[in-house]
Amino acid sequence: xxxxxxxxxxxxxxxxxxxxxxxxxxxxxxxxxxxxxxxxxxxxxxxxxxxxxxxxxxxxxxxxxxxxxxxxxxxxxxxxxxxxxxxxxxxxxxxxxxxxxxxxxxxxxxxxxxxxxxxxxxxxxxxxxxxxxxxxxxxxxxxxxxxxxxxxxxxxxxxxxxxxxxxxxxxxxxxxxxxxxxxxxxxxxxxxxxxxxxxxxxxxxxxxxxxxxxxxxxxxxxxxxxxxxxxxxxxxxxxxxxxxxxxxxxxxxxxxxxxxxxxxxxxxxxxxxxxxxxxxxxxxxxxxxxxxx
Length: 293
Fold this sequence. Notes:
Radius of gyration: 21 Å
Largest sheet: 6 strands, mixed
Protein name: Integral membrane protein
Region (Disordered): 116-140, 165-207
Order of helices and strands: EEHEEHEHHHEHEEEEEH
Organism: Streptomyces vulcanius
């Protein structure tokens, strides 16, 4: 949610007109930037501090794009929550909280400050380095795969309604994989309405899904980089789980099924039934997941 016209912070020796802000913490970071918190920090050239950062995106008086990094995470969290409620909030960090002023924006911003030139990259400075640019999401890849997982997590009920319990195979015989996967249906049935990114729930890709589940289970014994597994609020007593790894993303509800997205399966969303083992895996992942404070 954009800030108000009066929201300004000091950056690059000029006032910054605040357009929006996001959190960069182990439990909540723009997943388009990476599979985990350290990777997202590295995309901005930042050290992965335990408490994280707030990112303030805006324009200077000449219209140039700037990203101001601050270590007052609570201030940014309050601003975002207030904006989400449709209210104004003057996001004005103290200069002592500013960690860096980086040229460019690491994320797409759909709004612009009134009364200044259109958004553009600032003139290059030797000390600033190349300006930040959003990851390319015009073609399927890791960034688009993670955005697809974000979409499922936010609109879980829409995606869950595409799948019924009858879409899954009966429990496997002993010695086979214990995770149930959906049977391949005819082409017309799998062409359901997907997300704005074009993803569709298509129950196939069994061996790839089993590999993802095995890698996710390995996280329980060998903790991955911080932020690879995150747990957030869900209705009732459930939690929404998000796990990412090399080339894959998993979204699940602890009381329900899971969905898997793969770099190698452009635009496909692969559902995983609960079966006898998925509940235990989700419970174990939830116990070791990072949670918002």
